[in-house]
Design a protein that fits this description.
Keywords: Signal. By secondary structure, the chain is an alpha/beta fold. It has 13 helices and eleven strands. It has two domains: 164 residues, 3-Layer(aba) Sandwich (D-Maltodextrin-Binding Protein, domain 2); 123 residues, D-Maltodextrin-Binding Protein, domain 2, CATH 3.40.190. The strands form two sheets. The protein has a six-stranded mixed β-sheet. A five-stranded mixed β-sheet has the order 7-6-8-5-9, with helices on both faces.
Length: 326
């Protein structure tokens, strides 16, 4: 009887493994959806579309984009967490919805560690602090001095509540008693447009969103976030070089891929493999360079470690900035 029971257990185990392998071999058999917590026109959307095109070519199935902006990324992450865990719904996101947002809202309808599987960090890049051309400041210290003499009239934008752009603005406003108004947007593109049009004083955004306005002279870059200058803006200093050495200004922006937590491991492995291959493809590398982004294509475990390392640092920034979801 015990031998028979053991045989049944082994049969079930091997049967499950065979099913998993078969699933991985068959996957994908239909289109895959990338959910993006931003509207069209910003860095996350551009990168999602770039990887969608390359991974579609690699996997032989269409990859479509579903933009779900708003609520600090909550809508997109909630939709992904509730999706069938079958590999056909994937999240492509910047760091804020998975790291920042849970610390800014009293509650969110997802738990990153419980509800998501890390697939790969796709790329990293600089974020730029920029002002409209009509703003007289030529550097960050000049911007803050101008804001000090125009209290109540200066506004800064962000691509959503709790994003890094929001935290930087809140930190500068609070710690220097500048009373600058926060204006949240559903994404980078409309924020950059308002900076260029003069409806917004300044903001922090990616070069993808700012590039058309930098090229036309409607927006002026004052500093870049992170520890190194942007390759495409060699004359623009880092925040540290501009005299702001606080660790709050050192993070660089990144974009990564996650899936619902219960997605079968063979499917996750396939997604990881294809995402990593796409990141190293000539087509993706060339296009990312035009966005001033560097390809990464990390292993899932490495991406998870990056999250675990960064999350407490951002939590401290949120506390010191006093930022809250409005």
């Amino acid at each position: 009887m015990r031998i028979k029971t053991l045989s049944v257990v082994l049969a079930l185990a091997f049967g499950s493994a065979a099913v998993g392998q078969a699933h991985a071999q068959e996957y994908p058999t239909r289109p895959i959806t990338f959910i993006v917590p931003a509207p069209a026109g910003g860095a996350v959307d551009a990168v999602a579309r770039l990887f969608a095109n390359e991974m579609s070519r690699q996997m032989g199935q269409p990859v479509v984009i579903e933009n779900k902006p708003g609520a600090g990324g909550i809508l997109a992450l909630q939709a992904t967490a509730r999706a069938a865990p079958d590999g056909y719904t994937v999240l492509v996101t910047h760091s804020s919805p998975i790291i920042n947002t849970p610390h800014l809202y009293a509650s969110v309808p997802y738990d990153v560690r419980r509800d998501f599987a890390f697939v790969s960090q796709l790329c990293v890049g600089n974020l730029v602090l920029a002002v409209g051309a009509d703003v007289p400041a030529r550097d960050v210290k000049g911007l803050l001095a101008w804001a000090n003499t125009n209290k109540g009239k200066v506004s800064y934008g962000s691509y959503g509540q709790g994003t890094y752009a929001h935290l930087v603005g809140a930190y500068l406003s609070r710690n220097r008693n500048l009373d600058m108004a926060h204006v949240p947007y559903k994404g980078e593109a409309p924020m950059a447009q308002d900076i260029a049009g003069g409806a917004l004083t300044w903001g922090v955004a990616s070069l993808v969103a700012l590039r058309p306005y930098l090229d036309s002279g409607k927006v002026r870059p004052l500093a870049v976030m992170g520890n190194v200058r942007a390759k495409s803006l060699p004359d623009v200093p880092t925040m540290a070089e501009a005299g702001f050495t606080e660790p709050e200004f050192t993070p660089a922006g990144w974009i990564g891929m996650l899936a619902p937590a219960k997605t079968p491991q063979p499917v996750l492995a396939r997604l990881e493999k294809e995402a990593r291959a796409a990141a190293q493809s000539a087509a993706v590398k060339t296009r990312l360079a035009t966005y001033s982004l560097e390809p990464v294509g990390s292993a899932a475990a490495q991406f998870r470690r990056e999250f675990e390392t960064t999350e407490p640092v951002v939590a401290r920034l949120i506390q010191s900035s006093g930022a809250k979801a409005d």
